[in-house]
Specification:
There is one protein chain. 36% of the residues lie in helices and 15% in strands. The chain starts with 8 loop residues before the first helix and ends with a helix. The protein has a five-stranded mixed β-sheet, sandwiched between helices. Strands 1-2-3 form a three-stranded antiparallel β-sheet, with no helix packed on it. Helix 2 packs across helix 3 and helix 4 (96-103) packs across helix 5. With 298 residues, it is α/β, with parallel strands linked by helices.
């Protein structure tokens, strides 16, 4: 099968013009290495209408969408494909309200599906940043009125970001995550999950980084309102713009999901030609995500 390449929405619409064509694409990718029955492990099957495969031994039926992030999608696979395509190819983030109006589904349904896709975009944490790395933290919502520096307002969402630079000083790779506060314990999370201990890390003069120097090669320098580390401050500006285009209040428990979406797109910007197919591969390899897996516990 020829995988879909490119960002042209006309070509995409022509390729995936109905549910059957989308299911066929999923089917080819899902069973690219052969069919194995989830119930009994048998490898022989019978192909049924609608791209359903029936195990020849135990007669278990499995659809192309079963046990994937598209499992039991309520509005059709074609719409699921198109929403996914827009999420990873649009220049700005999409709000659930935009998707609701554009595809004729409820806002709640759009919100849930988009979060399912964000779940599959989460980093595998297998490729830690190395070389020259910049780290800085910030709040979403700006500085407190009449104050300078870090905001300790509990209502503001605190985020720490890191970028790896190329030899030419350009941004190569990005990671970001929500933190509870500016303590060393909170800041250490991004180091543990995303930064190699062999990296040359640059931070501002914030004292929260000092205890981490025993494990990481950290050089502290004056921020100078962002001019000391311009690359990461460009990324911070982009993250803030990204979150603003959601057009709704973002619960703190979901900040990381939006950051995962942003990071995935940035880190694969040089592979935009195959980004949609990469996401579909992740959709297939992920487990079914239910509404209860996503909503915030009351």
């Amino acid at each position: 099968m020829e995988i879909f390449k490119g960002e042209n929405i006309i070509e995409f619409t022509a390729r995936f013009s109905d549910d059957d064509k989308c299911k066929a694409y999923l089917s080819e990718l899902k069973w690219d290495d052969g069919f194995v029955c989830r119930k009994c492990g048998h490898k022989k099957f019978t192909q049924r209408k609608g791209y359903i495969r029936t195990c020849n031994l135990c007669k278990h039926n499995e659809s192309a969408t079963a046990n994937t992030a598209f499992h039991k999608v309520k509005f059709g696979i074609q719409k699921a494909f198109h929403i996914t395509f827009e999420m990873v190819n649009s220049t700005q983030s999409l709000s659930a309200m935009q998707v609701s109006k554009r595809y004729g589904i409820s806002r709640k349904t759009a919100w849930l599906f988009m979060h399912k896709i964000r779940k599959v975009l989460k980093s595998s944490e297998q490729y830690p940043l190395d070389g020259d790395v910049q780290v800085d933290e910030f709040t979403v919502g700006g500085k407190e009125e009449g104050k300078q520096g870090r905001s300790y307002d509990s209502k503001k969402k605190k985020i720490v970001a890191s970028v790896q630079l190329t030899k030419e000083g350009k941004v190569k790779c990005v990671y970001a995550m929500r933190i509870e506060d500016y303590s060393s314990k909170s800041l250490q999370k991004i180091f543990t999950h995303h930064i190699s201990k062999t990296a040359n890390v640059f931070t501002d003069k914030w004292r929260g980084y000092k205890p981490l120097m025993s494990d990481y090669n950290i050089t502290q320098k004056l921020s100078d309102s962002g001019r000391g580390m311009p690359q990461i401050h460009i990324i911070i500006h982009q993250i803030k713009s990204w979150l603003r285009t959601i057009h709704s209040w973002v619960h703190p428990e979901h900040i990381d999901s939006y950051l995962d979406e942003f990071v995935f797109r940035i880190n694969r910007s040089i592979h935009k030609n195959t980004i949609f197919n990469k996401v579909i591969e992740r959709v297939i390899n992920s487990n079914h995500v239910s509404y209860n897996d996503i909503i915030v516990a009351k």
